[in-house]
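Kindly go through the following sequence and its backbone structure tokens. Advise at your convenience whether the structure tokens fit the sequence:

___
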Amino acid sequence: MGVLAKGTNSVEGYSVPKEAEKVFKDGLLGNPLVSKDLPAGFEKYAGKIKFEGSDFPSIPVNWRFAESISALKGLEALFVQALLDKKYNFPPQEIIIDT
């Protein structure tokens, strides 16, 4: 985590979208307790999910609420992509999660 900038309440080098992507990839997709239940070939769906938004949280709390919710929305998007692919042969689309 970054360092507080002198005279501000922001943290330099911290990014909500980057942390959300990290939680999504490492905490969910990279977790064997979760990944065992993901659709086969989930990597092709996950590669189309992007995270964008303000680098700084809008509610300054000491727990990663925005990052966690965004990562769970990414997981939801992965399942929707897999369902569309399996049922309608619809190729994976880019999905942007606005943190």
In short: The helical segments are 16-29, 32-35, 42-46, 65-88. Strands lie at 49-52, 95-98. Residues 16-98 form one domain. Confidence is low (pLDDT under 50) at residues 1-9.
